[in-house]
Recover the amino acids of this structure.
């Protein structure tokens, strides 16, 4: 327990360094990109002459040398001030916090569905590797894996938008549901969540079912499974208690590694389904050259990925006691 | 009545090269409280025999194609899967060759021992852990109260085999099947494990089926011995008789190897017996040992010898000993 705590603290310290590095890289990249933010701001105000441009540069600190701008930004962001959005003219941190919830909801729902359903299918398939059902899971996995996220999304939009309109295809809440009780509101959000979460989940679900099938097959052939059977344990106990726990290792590894992909997938899904999350915010920020917002979103995504990796590490320790001593 | 009587047990495996007849009408028996040694070169079907008795052969690719396994008056091959599970780990337990990988790395050794007792004897979790600690003590693991909560990776190979033995004996089985329990261990540890098995056998009266390459251990520990070759039991008799007067040429070869090198590593062929084990996929008509036998006659290549009984309680499968 104490060792785990020490590890967590050490990992957190590392994570802070990592976030700083990500910040520096993003900051440099964005400023290296063509396009003058002052022009964008001036454009928002309906055009400006040279004098106004100079004032804008001065107000936003754009006339300072780059490293100075960076340290100013850094100093402020540590205190929770990520600057002001050029487009919305509101603090970036408020914008992000407003959008963080929907994205986390979307990503976690998709991830959970993918892991639970994917692993479940994989386990079922592994119990009879030569059966018809196992073949179906394999084919389904390949198809799911081959479909690009946005394409699945558009297909679902067409299907549920025109052919069979039982699911909302855009947004997170229905205007008509505003003012209803908290239960109705939650139900409304869940209803809107179905299609985007399904879209995002399908790719990963396919991967997890393949992975868990392979992993289970390997574990089921190991000596300790033979021991478990020789003890007289039932098939269910052997499969779920003795095999699954050991087969989870690669699944957790991949889930952790792919969390970044999942977030970038979320950007596409949010765009297709107009889900009001960080992805749509990022897209708007890119299109509108809203640098502070973009930088903020990137930093937050990095933090999400780092947190995900920390959780992955902790799950390793739960799954495999051999890792606890380290 | 014997505790265990295996009769004409046959097992096939589907392989890429065809169907391999891995066990061909294997028969052997064990009396209550006695020890049977099963010896033979690597690949002759010793492990498959043990696994088939408990119906633990992976199917596919394996299949029991015939025979009976009478245990305490019942044919195990005729039981339902549920009834079979009440036999495994309870009346008949097994320990394996690979102590390093035979325990589940995700659970404490205490949990793994307790699991059997809870399942078969309905103890509560706490009682079962207590029993697990007693069992660790019985197999001479120091500080059992603490070690019961440790994980397999915290034990050495020899210690893990002790844990396996503790687990196997926790439900006081009538029969312990030990499949090369010492092959993977250091020589010094091997002797300790053999001593432990002997000691516990005397204390509990459990019958033991000891599968081994170690003729020395067979001589010291067993009452009877069954010699296997290419899926057949080619000779079976009281161990003293076999050592004094081995009948089958293969048995003679095995014993000839024994004094110098007491053990033969798995996969290693016996120097004194030239040639290799034949393919089990294309069994010819004759004796499978014919190509390696110094006493081969034309008949040996044409026809499989029957099991004959040159003396009461003694069988051999060789044309040299049929009247
Ligand atoms: N799962 C399997 N698939 C195909 N063939 C198998 C399988 N398991 C065992 N066999 C075959 O059965 C034969 C007997 O194997 P077994 O493991 O019983 O040998 P053994 O006498 O225990 O040898 P060792 O001393 O090396 O443990 C071998 O020829 C082996 O190739
Ligand atoms: Mg073996």
């Amino acid at each position: 327990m104490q060792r785990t705590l020490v590890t967590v603290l050490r990992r957190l310290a590392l994570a802070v360094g990592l976030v700083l590095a990500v910040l520096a890289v993003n900051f440099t990249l964005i400023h290296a990109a063509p396009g003058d933010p002052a022009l964008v701001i001036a454009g928002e105000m309906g055009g400006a002459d040279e004098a106004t441009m100079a004032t804008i540069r001065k107000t936003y600190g754009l006339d300072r040398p780059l490293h100075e701008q960076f340290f100013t930004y850094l100093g402020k962001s540590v205190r929770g001030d990520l600057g002001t959005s050029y487009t919305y003219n509101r603090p970036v941190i408020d914008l992000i916090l407003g959008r963080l919830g929907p994205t986390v909801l979307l990503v976690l729902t998709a991830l959970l569905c993918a892991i639970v359903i994917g692993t479940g299918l994989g386990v079922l398939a592994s119990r009879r590797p030569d059966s018809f059902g196992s073949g179906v899971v394999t084919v389904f996995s390949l198809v799911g894996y081959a479909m690009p996220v946005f394409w699945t999304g558009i297909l679902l939009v067409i299907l549920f938008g025109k052919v069979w309109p039982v699911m909302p295809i855009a947004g997170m809440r229905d205007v008509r549901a505003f003012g209803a009780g908290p239960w109705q509101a939650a139900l409304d959000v869940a209803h809107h969540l179905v299609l985007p979460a399904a879209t995002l989940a399908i790719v990963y679900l396919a991967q997890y079912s393949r992975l868990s099938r392979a992993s289970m097959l390997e574990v089921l052939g190991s000596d300790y499974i033979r021991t478990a059977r020789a003890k007289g344990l039932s098939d269910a106990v052997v499969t779920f208690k003795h095999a699954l726990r050991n087969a989870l290792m690669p699944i957790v590894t991949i889930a952790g590694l792919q969390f970044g992909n999942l977030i970038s997938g979320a950007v596409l899904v949010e765009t297709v389904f107009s889900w009001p999350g960080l992805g749509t915010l990022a897209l708007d920020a890119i299109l509108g050259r809203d640098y502070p917002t973009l930088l903020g979103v990137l930093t937050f995504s990095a933090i999400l990925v780092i947190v995900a990796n920390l959780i992955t590490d902790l799950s390793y320790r739960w799954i495999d006691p051999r890792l606890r001593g380290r | 009545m014997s505790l265990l009587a295996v009769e004409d047990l046959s097992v096939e495996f589907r392989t890429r090269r065809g169907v391999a007849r891995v066990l061909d009408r294997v028969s052997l028996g064990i009396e209550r409280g006695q020890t049977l040694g099963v010896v033979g070169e690597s690949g002759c079907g010793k492990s498959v025999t043990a696994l088939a008795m408990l119906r633990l052969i992976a199917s596919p690719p394996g299949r029991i194609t015939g025979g009976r396994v009478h245990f305490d008056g019942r044919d195990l091959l005729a039981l339902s899967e549920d009834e079979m599970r009440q036999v495994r780990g309870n009346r008949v337990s097994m320990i394996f060759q690979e102590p390093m990988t035979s325990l589940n790395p995700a659970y404490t050794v205490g949990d793994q021992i307790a699991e059997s007792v809870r399942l078969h004897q309905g103890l509560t979790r706490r009682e079962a852990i207590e029993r697990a600690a007693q069992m660790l003590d019985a197999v001479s693991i120091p500080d059992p109260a603490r070690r019961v909560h440790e994980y397999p990776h915290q034990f050495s190979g020899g210690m893990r085999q002790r844990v396996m033995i503790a687990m196997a004996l926790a439900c006081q089985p009538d029969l312990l099947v030990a499949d090369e329990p010492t092959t993977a261990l250091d020589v010094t540890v091997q002797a300790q494990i053999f001593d432990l098995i002997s000691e516990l056998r005397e204390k509990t009266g459990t019958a033991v089926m000891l599968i081994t390459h170690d003729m020395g251990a067979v001589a010291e520990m067993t009452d009877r011995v069954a010699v296997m070759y290419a899926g057949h039991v080619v000779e079976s008799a009281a161990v003293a008789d076999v050592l004094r007067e081995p009948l089958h040429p293969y048995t003679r070869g095995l014993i000839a190897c024994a004094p110098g090198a007491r053990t033969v590593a798995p996969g290693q062929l016996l120097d004194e017996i030239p040639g290799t084990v034949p393919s089990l996929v294309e069994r010819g008509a004759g004796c499978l040992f014919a190509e390696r036998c110094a006493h081969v006659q034309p008949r040996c290549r044409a026809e499989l010898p029957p099991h004959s009984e040159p003396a009461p309680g003694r069988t051999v499968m060789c044309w040299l000993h049929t009247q």
